[in-house]
Amino acid sequence: MRKKRLAASLLALSLCFSLAACSGGSDETTAPESTAPAETTPAETTPAETAAAESDLAYVQDKGTLVVGITNFAPMDYKAEGSDEWIGFDADMAKAFAESLGVAVEFQEITWDYKVMELDSKNIDVVWNGMTLNDEVMAAMSTSVPYCTNYQTLVYPADKAADFEGLTSLEGLNIAVESGSAGEDAAEALGATTVPVQSQANTLMEVAAGTSDAAVIDVLMAADMTGEGTSYADLVYSVNLNEAQGLESEEYGVGFRKGSDLVDVFNEFWAAAVADGTVEATAATYGLQDAIILE
User: Fold this and answer.
1) Which of 20, 40, 143, 282 has its CA 20 to 30 A from that of 224?
2) Which of 96, 24, 121, 41 is nearest to 254 (CA)?
3) Per-residue model confidence as pLDDT tens digits over 63-91
4) What is the CATH number of domain 152-244?
């Protein structure tokens, strides 16, 4: 009888401790749960902060530098002999645009075929290098108002001019072109066997060396870099390849990341630079006064 009473007492005592332990565990686990949201939930982002985070203008001004993607392309972006400074119509206007943003300018040479990749990866902030506004470019970037006219032309040795003048087909010819350029598109459309190189300047080297029959480049470069008094005095150009394809003249524009707020900022800057004569004066410095768009 005593054994039964002792067993009952021990069972009651055990239940008491068990309930106490369960009650204590509940208190210890609910307290952290009530504070967890304050510890793990990030602070709310205001609409202004979200917009700033997505703003190219804010991004550029925060880092203090506008990185401009270019190639060696006179008279738009190039270096004078013996100088490390980038000059040219596009380079000079890029410097003015960066100044209007309150930042420094940095010029970054790129492989033209990878310009969209360079832009989207933020290796550069803008493509500003006599870029033709075609469907492919405008699908991949947000672009500025057009600012200059251009067409593709054929460059060849002066002593072979009779073989090239008046051509409407490039079949059977090895034509040097800048990879990913409007010149490459024109050469392929006219049946050429293309020899892609990294820049338009390199196409002229190919022709001068005799490794290509001719080159297709922008007429603005051809006018600046070939003929008497230039580095390529033995090369000449003729033939409007846009006309040969039944196409209108091309227009240059500046490229920004898709959806970038810098497009509107640029267009406002450009309108002001046209109004105060800066664009026209800069164009005259580089012989582009007949090609620049002032409307």
Assistant:
1) 143
2) 96
3) 999 999 999 999 999 999 899 999 999 99
4) 3.40.190.10
